[in-house]
Specification:
Blueprint: H1 86-108, H2 138-153, E1 174-175, E2 180-182, H3 192-209, H4 215-226, H5 234-243, H6 253-259, H7 267-278, E3 283-289, E4 292-296, H8 308-320, E5 329-334, H9 345-356, H10 383-386, E6 395-397, H11 400-403, H12 417-420, E7 438-440, E8 450-451, E9 473-480, H13 498-506, E10 513-519, H14 537-541, H15 545-551, H16 553-566, E11 571-577, H17 578-585, E12 586-590, H18 603-610, H19 619-622, E13 625-631, H20 640-644, E14 649-653, E15 671-672, H21 680-687, H22 699-716, H23 719-737, H24 748-754, H25 763-767, H26 789-801, H27 810-814, H28 818-825
Length: 826
């Protein structure tokens, strides 16, 4: 891959995704003319059209008539035929009146979208205030911050220069396949964070632009991605998605990844394994029969933990929202926060390959060991198998999915509680090394559990919360208990667990110096060339910076012009005592008392003695901070949704894969950080400023990220979004769990023949109808305010021209029937 640019894909997005308004399963007549409906380019050809749509010819380029000198004789002006007689005029007016009434009733009246099966969406025009939040542009906020801070550093200088796209120059950094941007030490290398902000915004715009708008488009996209028909009930799921305004209705590849290995199991073998988990200890089973959902707990020991029944009730409540569309079935769930299935890399790879080809495995015997060796779940050529101490140096996360791959990023394994603690027969949960259809609340890249949506802490209130700019503290804040390892004792290296390390790191009071990156505004004395020392100006800057600026205005302007000519913001390193940096950047402490520890061997006493425990803080107290930290506990972080609901910017560290991961865009909705904390000082110095120069803070940029994080919760992390995920997951699982001979596929032709159109023109039904979200209209402004949008288009067009060796082109795609499409893709 080209290491100077990030992969054009977003997580879970294949490279040849169709344009937003491509044609449906049936071809239009070749005699029809089509125009692109892409906003802002009316009449121009969309760069990724499946066929070459040609705009109608402009008048100035019409073919000359056969008359002399190419000039047609002037035509006499006449009234249009429709109004040349009173009878025709009356007929025309009546027809127009009927058309107007029809348009009003089907939903094209004032402030209403047409919700018919044709999927039309109006573009442009006056925006309707629907009460929904709008995502903003962190890149625009960054440029405003940059201009303000350069004005602060160089008062009186001309700051009217236009800045180019952040990816339009050579930046010297490296986009690693591990999901990290490796920071270059080249003297011309720009600060990496603006690049990441630009990349996050481009990925968001790309996701929005490619979502299906109709059931027909969704079916085609499903078959293009997965090479098979959607599951039976897909039309019901689509109606649910549209009724509840899902923003990204195509992004459910996580489900396909989780269920792919089960496709290779014969029906009888799948039935046998369902029986195994049905009788597994420390689980609960949901029984779906005739549309009702009941809870069954065979292992009474599982009830000893108080969270079992609430979790079972929560999961059952999610399923009851759509259980009428599910066949009779049973599904078994783990009661724990952690995953349990550790399939070997070779076995999982074999099953996935067979399943995606529609074939069944003949090797049904698998060893189910409770003693897990993590390396078995990694490929032989992975970084973990080749070098367990593999490290890439100073870097930032740009792709959270790849950065969470433990096999490619083995530095995480010895510093996270889940991978530090042993997984053996006496562990809770007990691990398994064979493929079992067990639904779990959390998983990592090396687990084969089926991921579901947890409701833990879903209804926790944020409490009183000030606007971002009114929050009194700019430190990164966190309070939490010492979870992360199921049981801490003398045999476990609990001091390296992620939450224990976090407390030790943020409360380090060493006087040794540490270095971190800061934006370069010429604040470093050593940075200035010799000619900057005009009449001893450098010496006077410490006593009178304003006077020095006045005496050296010409030098300042020259230096600033050089910076602007070079384009990007650069960085330098700042070195200060560690205790000063920690005090300035963080308010992070373990709170409460030791838990999950062995008191008999002295582990609890060690925790109590070694940790400076802080009192617990209320949510309102934490909300006083502009930056809030989220980090894993025993499993995923249940407080993430609550933190994102605040007006603070969230920095998130995790090793787990979560159901919303394809929808959550790093550096656009939140700030991702590494679990070794090595990038935290660089991140905080950019957004909060440094101890030496706190005024050089990209405060408005951080506020934009906070706004987008809160909007993510309001539009994409609702109960309806979780229900949509679970509904699609269980429609897919129902097909896998079905008896042999049952046809569990969805056929679009059957949908059109069975559809009830009686309410399409029913005034009462239309009145109660909830408008479908216009997907591109989630951005503040005119649907995407970034000036660099054309750069993204060129990158995407370039990506579609590449031959990936297996995918068919959209020119070929467009003319295929469903049957032909399936044969081609498979």
């Amino acid at each position: 891959m080209d290491t100077r640019s990030a992969s054009p894909r977003v997580p879970y997005r294949a490279a040849s995704t169709p344009p937003p308004n491509y044609r449906g399963l049936h071809s239009h007549s070749p005699a029809r003319h089509h125009r692109s409906s892409r906003p802002g380019t009316a009449g121009s050809e969309y760069p990724e059209q499946p066929t070459a749509y040609r705009p109608l010819q402009e008048e100035g380029h019409a073919k000359p008539s056969p008359f002399a000198l190419g000039q047609a004789p002037p035509a006499k002006w006449r009234l249009p035929k429709a109004v040349r007689s009173p009878k025709r005029l009356l007929s025309t007016l009546v027809a127009l009146a009927i058309l107007g009434l029809l348009i009003k009733y089907v939903g094209m009246g004032k402030d209403r979208l047409l919700r018919s099966k044709w999927g039309w969406r109006p573009r442009g025009g006056r925006r309707v205030d629907d009460g929904l939040c709008r995502f903003v542009s962190p890149v625009d906020a960054y440029h405003r911050d940059l201009q303000r801070l350069r004005g602060l550093a160089y008062p009186g200088a001309n700051l009217t220069a236009l800045y180019p796209s952040l990816h339009s120059y050579v930046h010297h950094h490296t986009y690693s396949p591990t999901g990290h941007l490796l920071v270059s030490d080249h003297p011309d290398a720009p600060h990496p964070i603006p690049l990441l902000l630009d990349l996050g915004e481009k990925r968001w715009e790309e996701l929005l632009s490619r979502q299906s708008r109709t059931l027909e488009e969704a079916v085609r996209e499903y078959m293009r991605r997965y090479g098979r028909r959607p599951p039976r009930g897909f039309d019901k799921w689509w109606d649910f998605a549209m009724r509840h305004n899902l923003v990204l209705p195509d992004e459910y590849d996580r489900i396909n990844l989780d269920l792919a290995p089960f496709l290779a199991l014969p029906e009888e073998e799948m039935k046998r394994r369902r029986g195994l988990v049905d009788n597994m200890s420390e689980t609960f089973t949901l029984v779906i029969k005739n549309g009702s959902v009941d809870i069954e707990i065979k292992d009474e020991g599982g009830l000893n933990w108080g969270g079992t029944l609430p979790r079972a009730s929560d999961t059952a409540a999610l399923l009851r929202a759509f259980s009428e569309h599910l066949p009779d079935m049973r599904a078994t769930f783990s009661i724990f926060d952690q995953p349990q299935i550790y399939l070997s890399w070779a076995r999982r790879g074999s099953l996935v390959n067979l399943g995606l080809k529609g074939e069944h495995t003949s090797h049904l015997e698998e060893t189910d060991s409770a003693l897990v060796k993590l390396s078995r779940s990694c490929a032989p050529d992975s970084n973990y198998r080749k070098n367990e101490s593999y490290s890439e140096g100073r870097s930032f996360i740009y792709d959270s999915l790849e950065a969470g791959d433990l096999c490619q990023n083995p530095y995480v394994i010895p510093i996270h509680g889940l991978t530090i603690e042993p997984h053996e027969p006496s562990s809770h949960p007990r691990p398994h090394t064979q493929l079992l259809p067990l639904f779990s609340l959390a998983k990592t890249s090396i687990n084969s559990d089926i991921l579901i949506t947890p409701l833990d802490q879903f209804n926790h209130e944020t409490g009183k919360d000030l606007e971002f700019r009114d929050k009194p503290s700019s430190r990164l804040a966190w309070r939490g208990s010492p979870t992360g390892i199921s049981w801490m004792n003398a045999q476990v290296d609990w001091r390296n667990a992620h939450r224990i390390r976090l407390h030790r790191y943020a409360n380090n009071r060493s006087t040794e110096h540490m270095t971190f990156l800061v934006p370069d505004f010429g604040q470093d004395e050593d940075y200035y060339p010799d000619e900057f020392d005009v009449d001893g100006g450098i010496a006077e800057i410490k006593n009178g910076q304003e006077e020095w600026h006045e005496r050296n205005r010409e030098v300042q302007e020259q230096h600033l012009e050089e910076q602007i000519d070079e384009g990007p913001l650069h960085f330098i390193e700042e070195e200060i005592p560690t205790d000063e940096a920690m005090e300035f950047f963080y308010d992070i402490k373990l709170a409460g008392d030791p838990i999950q520890c062995d008191s008999d061997d002295g582990t609890c006493d060690d925790l109590r003695r070694e940790i400076e425990w802080a009192p617990r803080q209320s949510g309102e107290d934490l909300n006083q901070n502009k930056f809030l930290l989220d980090i894993d506990g025993n499993g995923w972080s249940g407080r993430f949704r609550k933190l994102m609901s605040t007006n603070s910017a969230v920095i998130k560290m995790t090793m787990f894969t979560e159901w919303f991961q394809p929808h959550l865009i790093p550096w656009f909705m939140y700030i991702p950080a590494k679990l070794d904390f090595s990038d935290l000082p660089d991140i905080m110095a950019f957004f909060r400023g440094s101890p030496t120069y706190p005024e050089f803070a990209f405060d408005e940029t951080a506020e934009a990220l906070a706004i987008n994080g809160k909007c993510f919760v309001q539009r994409m992390f609702r109960l309806e979004d979780m229900q949509a995920y679970m509904m699609r997951l269980f429609l897919e699982y129902a097909r896998i769990a079905a008896d042999e001979g049952d046809d569990m596929d969805f056929y679009l032709d059957d949908y059109w023949s069975d559809i009830d159109t009686s309410d399409w023109f029913d005034e009462e039904a239309i009145k109660n109808r909830k408008p479908v979200a216009d997907l591109p209209d989630v951005m503040e402004g005119d649907g995407g305010s970034r000036a660099a949008g054309t750069v993204l288009e060129e990158e995407l067009v370039e990506g579609t021209k590449q031959d990936d060796g297996g995918d068919i082109s959209w020119e070929e795609h467009d003319g295929l029937s469903e049957e032909e499409l399936l044969r081609e893709v498979v």
